[in-house]
Amino acid sequence: MAPNPTPTDGFPTPTSRSQAETKAVLLKHIPDADAPAPSLQKNAHMQFLVRNLAFSVLQVGLDPGNKQRCIDKIMTWQHPEGRFGGGPGQAAHLLPTYASVCALAIVGRPGPNGGWDQVDREKMYKFFLSLKQKDGSFLVAHHSEVDVRRHPARHAHPRALQGTASFIASCQTYEGGFASASHPSTSLSGSLLPPPAPRPPLGEAHGGYTFCALASWVLLRPYLASTSTSDAPLPTIDVKNLLRWLVNMQGIEIELGGFRGRTNKLVDGCYSWWCSGAFALLEALGVGGIQNADSDEVPIDDIDGRLLLLSSC
Question: Which DSSP letter does residue 286 get?
Answer without folding.
Answer: T
